[in-house]
Design a protein that fits this description.
single chain, about 170 residues, mainly alpha, about 0% strand
Length: about 170
């Protein structure tokens, strides 16, 4: 394995873990706290969060890791073999499907629906508390698990590979 790819895998472990940490914060306490506002405050805060997330480091990290995951999966498919290659390839696929795919299929459509809602309407409060918070949090928890699992799989794959290289033939 090239040094560049070895370093890329190490940085990817950290990046997957960072993405998981941000998602964990939302699933663990941010969404619960926003729900406790009774509706309007939580909706307004989440609308602002959904606008601001596009302007900061997190989005570059989140989207960048989708692209890097494609590279990792391709490299694992072409250049790696055995359990290490399988673990490394799975790490990338889990991120792509369970984190990026879930975001596109579930969380983003809910965010877009919420963005278009009027804060003064009772239907907005009902949607927020009865639909958005529980569903969005569920899918966010899936993303949390996927990003954390990707970090773990990549770590174990990299360890497996380095350990097998150290053992005498």
């Amino acid at each position: 394995m090239s040094t560049i790819f070895f370093v890329l895998l190490q940085l990817s472990i950290l990046a997957y873990a960072l993405v998981a940490g941000v998602f964990l914060a939302f699933s663990d306490f941010i969404m619960r706290s926003l729900a406790l506002t009774g509706g309007v405050g939580g909706v307004e805060a989440m609308q602002a969060i959904n606008r601001e997330v596009f302007r900061w480091v997190f989005m570059a990290l989140f989207l960048g890791m989708a692209a890097v995951s494609v590279l990792i999966a391709g490299y694992a498919w072409v250049a790696l073999s055995g359990p290490a290659g399988t673990l490394i390839g799975l790490a990338a696929l889990v991120y792509l499907v369970g984190c990026f795919g879930v975001t596109v299929a579930f969380n983003v459509p809910m965010n877009e629906a919420l963005a278009g809602m009027d804060l003064s309407q009772g239907a907005t409060r009902d949607y927020w508390l009865q639909t958005y918070v529980p569903r969005w949090t569920f899918w966010n928890s899936v993303r949390t698990g996927a990003a954390a699992l990707s970090a773990a799989l990549l770590l174990f794959g990299l360890l497996w590979m380095t350990q097998s290289q150290l053992q005498p033939a």
